[in-house]
Amino acid sequence: MKEPRIHAPPVGVAVDVAVFTVREGRLEVLLLRMTRPPFEGKWCLPGGRIRHDETVEAAAERELVEKTGLSGLWLEQLYTFSDPARDPQARCVSVAHLALVPPDVSLRTDDKYSAIGWFPAERPPSLAFDHRAILSYAVKRLRAKLEYTNVAYALLPEQFTLGELQRAYEAILGRALDTRNFQRKVRAIDLVEETGELRTGQAHRPGRLFRFRVRRPVEIAVLT
Amino acid sequence: MKEPRIHAPPVGVAVDVAVFTVREGRLEVLLLRMTRPPFEGKWCLPGGRIRHDETVEAAAERELVEKTGLSGLWLEQLYTFSDPARDPQARCVSVAHLALVPPDVSLRTDDKYSAIGWFPAERPPSLAFDHRAILSYAVKRLRAKLEYTNVAYALLPEQFTLGELQRAYEAILGRALDTRNFQRKVRAIDLVEETGELRTGQAHRPGRLFRFRVRRPVEIAVLT
DNA sequence: GCAAAAGTGTTGTCGGTACACCCATGC
DNA sequence: GCATGGGTGTACCGACAACACTTTTGC
Question: Which of B17, B13, B7 minimizes the C-alpha distance to B82?
């Protein structure tokens, strides 16, 4: 009934972030290579301990800046993973986060971290800790949010064609969509607006360029 | 860039639980009265620190048993609240949980806690910490889950009439539903099955009694 | 017999899905 | 001129919302 150990060592609080992007029609996640035991050589999601004067969301943003150079991206809290065995070295819960970036960002690869890179979100390499479970959960949540919010704005560049938007949706949802229905629906709910410009340079007929009408998180019904 | 304080005091991990029930057509939440400063006399959600050998969900269940006598209820993790100022006494993040009980459970009121009771979830008394925000978030999530899952089974007794089920839905959603459409939909998706008995004793025509077909969390479409 | 809750059917509308063709450009 | 992705219109179908009356019991 009473606490068994009065002065037990503290339970730590960390954050981890699953950062996604869509490139070449594929959903990809950002991973770092670990350099120290016990997970030497394995890959992991960026993250770290939180500080006293910040929320977990702020910690997630700070860790991303420090470890990857990414800033100002779309980010939200996901779930707290707390299996006592999740970290073999220290008792530590992890508040997992989901983040999205457009495909044209550049990573800072110069510093102490041995390697950093984008990997297929559906078939990642072997991951440290419980990061495989975190990644699976993040993909699931992203799929769900895509259906009833406008989060896609955080995954695409400022301007894009409807074909590019559709391919981003297809990459995340993992299934093909009907172009005619997709375009009609996207326009019906005023998700995007024309910029007046055309995508030239590629072969074939140039597509009209669009931008998102609102570039902050909003609930909006699209696509069952 | 580097950690400012190498040996900063640890950030604690606690859990809090918003326990709901529906009684007399109203959504109610379980609150405890605090006995110690700085929130003496205010009410709070049940909760406490986690231990080293348990997940946050297990900690939530354990705290509920210790503080309220409730056990074996429906429970899920909600969100982690981490404002550095949320607890004026100790730096501590709280992993909030949502729990549901049927209206006929009894609370243990005998021990050290000065008071415990059910309050209207929409108009609670003055709450300690950030528990008002946690409660609001929990109500929002409960409403959402009611729409696409069968969680209502955790709020109703073993047997109930369709009228009672509808009133529970109306209490949580905060709006009236059409009886004919409600009954048709509930039966169409095989949410419930007849027990063959009737609700007698009240005045007026007795209703048939039903039970939920499955009494574990399942996704099922009901009610826009 | 009357008050009150239980229970049942039909119709119109809207949104979703399925589907085929013409258009504009680069090569 | 042809291959390729861009872009548009229609028809069917199912789900949902709106709506009124009969039934059964306790008092």
Answer: B13
